[in-house]
Amino acid sequence: MKTRPLFAASVLLAALNSAGAQAGGGAAAPAAPADIPHIAFDKYTLPNGLQVILVEDKRLPVVAVNVWYHVGPANEAPGLAGFAHLFEHMMFAGSKHLPRGLADRLLEGAGASDSNGGTGYDSTSYYDTVPANQLELALWVHADRMGYLLDVLDQKSLTNQQDVVRNERRETVENEPYGIVEEALNHALFPPEHPYYASVIGSHTDIQNAKLADVRDFFTRYYGPNNASIVIAGDIDKVKARALVAKYFGSLKRGPDVERPQVTTPPITEERRLIVLDRVELPRVYMGWLTPPAYQPGDAELAVAAQILAGGKSSRLYQSLVYERQIAQDVDADQDARALASTFLVEVTARAGHTAQELEAAIDAELAALREHGPTAQEVERARRQIETAMLTGLEQLGGDGLADQLNHYNQFTGNPGYLAEDIAALRRITAADVQRAVRTWLQPKNRVVVAGVPGEPTLPHDPPLPKTPKGSKTAKSVKTRHAGVNEAEAWRAKAPQAGPAPVFQLPLGESFRLANGLTVIHHRNPALPLVSAEVVIRSGADSNPLALPGLAGFTAQMLTEGTQERSALAIAEEIAQLGAFMDADSGTNASAVSLLALRSTFEQAFGVMADVVLHPAFPPEEVERQRASRLGDLLGQRDEAEAVASVAAAGALYGPRHPYGYGQLGTEPAIRAVTRADVQGFWRRHYVPSNAALVVTGDITREELKALAEKYFGAWQGDAAPPFAPGTPGPTRARVVLVDKPGAPQTALRLVTFGAERTSDQYPALEVMNAAFGGLFTSRINQNLREEKGYSYGVFSGFRYGRTPGPFSIAGSVRADATGASVAEILREARAMIDAPLGADELTGARNAQLLSLPNGFETNADIGASLAEAFVFGLPLDYYRQLPARLAAVTAPDVQEAARRYLDPAHLVIVAVGDRKRILPQLDKLKLGPIEIRDSEGQLLP
Question: How many CB atoms lie within 10 A of CB 400?
């Protein structure tokens, strides 16, 4: 998998604990309920066995290409744990007609987004979303990987990807809070000989032991067209798409027949218990059970049970452990459906001062009640509705993990890409008795694993040093020469296909009107799915915090859903959940917002609840205390996250204590403890006024319907003008290097920061193009250097966080602890190179087009569109801003980019923040002679 660029937009309103209901199999498909969207598709199979699924969807001029190979860790040989994932990385390392890095450059330059790969236990996927006129390019790339990888396979590529994957393991397992605890849970659920025993990423030893011969054998055995399926969904002509598939994939040779793994998973007959030490502040309890495979009886019922147990504030574990008893910080439950055996997991983090033993007893009480008495019919209906809403929301996006991926998922597990209607129909048939039966059958105490992750010094798995290349070893060229590929050479494949005619597309404009009280209403109709997204945006965020109370904006926003004059906190949560909706309130740097996602059929009811929390919050004293305790717990958790600590320390170093940008969104422990109900109520009264707000609504709703709802629910909203925006003057540190000690950390979280630009800057297009070339794209200079060439990191990226005043420009990533100094030196060298010479024509075109041609991909979902319209309001941009942006991006020149680099990439102005093992990294940084070094704590505050 490729890492995502820094500051990639995320506008999800909520994340379900269960990714989707999976219905039991075996019965004939029932008639689809009328209110379930119908996805028309064609499915056929090429003579070589490749399954092809075509979906014509004209919503946007984009196409998602999604290829699944039916292989994963379930197919790995003993001693090669993590090999399927390592091989996924190898597929990006170059093929016969696409030298290493060329595919990524071509796709990014063509405007591709969601371009990545992923490895699950039973499958491996590769996907891109491209402009409609670049479909042939995407098919050329995927076909060359499928047919011609072995022709150029060499040890250099394998060695590089072994470094990258091992860095990924350090970042996502060993330096991630509770990462090794979760790995221990997996090991306890399955015996060592089971293919699900190891985590998908595997172990350092097995990753390092992989040989070229293993890669060749794996490709030959599992990566033939007969073990793959491809979904092409979007703005296509099906006849032309069929011809292109035949052209690029039709001549590829069929591979050997692949038998699905036949593995018996031994049941757990006696409870297994583990205690695992980790560098964490709070204990966490995991419980795991073996459960039915995907789409088998009991699977969907357990997905509903997971939602009832831990699906948001209306769930049993949340209400009991988090809300009422206040012994837990957070709760989660999930039915993780797989082909050979699924797992049901419960995960609960303790509140400070409470123990794993307390959590376990409380979880057991809730599980026992669910087994003994079952859920109520209302709970089951609530869970079903929320799962269904989440499933439909996933279809808004064509690529990534959206529609195309879901069809491939259904195809692999059920044989029917159009299983959605049957899936939802089966979900709707689940009763309280069904859920109770499944819980009684599968979630018994004697059949589980219990793992407690507790604070302490962890024992990390063996991390062998990188092997040295022996003198006289075979050269990459000789290795390539001696090993022939699978498919015959076809000269025409050497030339990249030409793009088709550029699609004509107007980015969503949004319609705006204003109520008599001054509230701005912005609307965009999108009837593609029966969903509506709404957001009340307040033009005051952390930038409006009083200096003595950093975090107050966030505290206020999160209090909105904790009780109104007519509804209690739990009543709000239960009413929203019962409607199958999701509502959230939060604050960012420049704005606060209450967000809502609902089905069209329940939108007005949910909209009424949203209006109530915005207009009539009661700020009950007991809820203020609950929120205080929760935020203190979040602050403890933040201290465990090296990258979060680096971000907060960078903010403190760059802006100082006299500027609201100098703190994290949570604020500081003293500030959280000092906040009073009057402070929260006062912030709401001053800033949550109609003249400082916008109601942004996108989805299946007309302007007339929205106008009536806005008048009904928000027409009486009154308030004085919000205080003028006056954030103060930054007071940056005089130090050049900021260090936060994280003893024993295997990686260093780096941030190199300087002052950036306002969102309204005329230089915005040039800044985006400059950043794309330097660190915004996967093929950017710093990521290619530190990841692909040096093997120091899993990924390093850069980005601007624009504000009403200049926000930070940040370069961020985690690097091997022993490569901290070298990584900083390389980043500074790349920054200087951007200043010293203009971009060449090809690099400029690629970076510019990556921004310009990918613009439509940012408007796929209602939430995407709403976020763009809300941004326009917050920063005072015209509603037609995004329609003007393409021409402005197209006009960016090499001198424009060089001027932006001179202003924002000057190494002398970059403050280096490093969070890691001080004993290991301080000597490396000292050698660079960068300047004064200061030490800060995990909240970013200067230590004496």
Answer: 21
Helices and strands, number each (H, E), in the chain: 32, 23
Q: Strand, helix or coil at 124?
A: strand
Q: How far apart are the first and last CA of the chain?
A: 42
- What is residue 810's three-state secondary structure? strand
Cα dihedral 862, 110, 4, 585, rounded to 10, equals -20
Give the whole-angstrom CA distance, residue 386 versus residue 14. 11
What local confidence, expressed as pLDDT, does residue 507 receive? 85
CA-based radius of gyration for the chain: 27
CA–CA separation, 816 vs 826, rounded Å?
A: 14
12-21, 643-652, 682-691: segment of lowest average pLDDT? 12-21
> What Å distances lie between residue 828 and 4, 772, 888, CA to CA?
21, 17, 29
Torsion sign across C-alpha atoms 25, 30, 35, 39: positive
Q: What's the pLDDT tens digit per position in 390-422?
A: 999 999 999 999 999 999 999 999 999 999 999
pLDDT, tens digit, for every residue of 483-502? 678 999 999 999 999 999 98
Cβ-proximal residues to 27 (8 Å cutoff; 6+ apart), any chain:
none
Instruction: Band the pLDDT of 471: cuts 50, 70, 90.
Output: low
Helix (H) or strand (E) holding 229: strand 228-234
Amino acid at 740: V
Please report, as a single letter, which amino acid is at residue 546: P
Exposed (0-12), middle (13-18) or buried (19+): which is 454, by Cβ within 10 Å? middle
Q: Which of 4-8, 538-542, 708-712, 915-919 has the lowest mean pLDDT?
A: 4-8
Neighbours of 729 (CB within 10 A): 9
For helices 894-904 and 841-852, the axis angle rounded to 10 degrees is: 80
Taking the C-alpha atoms of residue 211 and residue 209, their distance in angstroms, rounded to an integer, is 6
pLDDT band at 15; cut points 50, 70, 90: very low
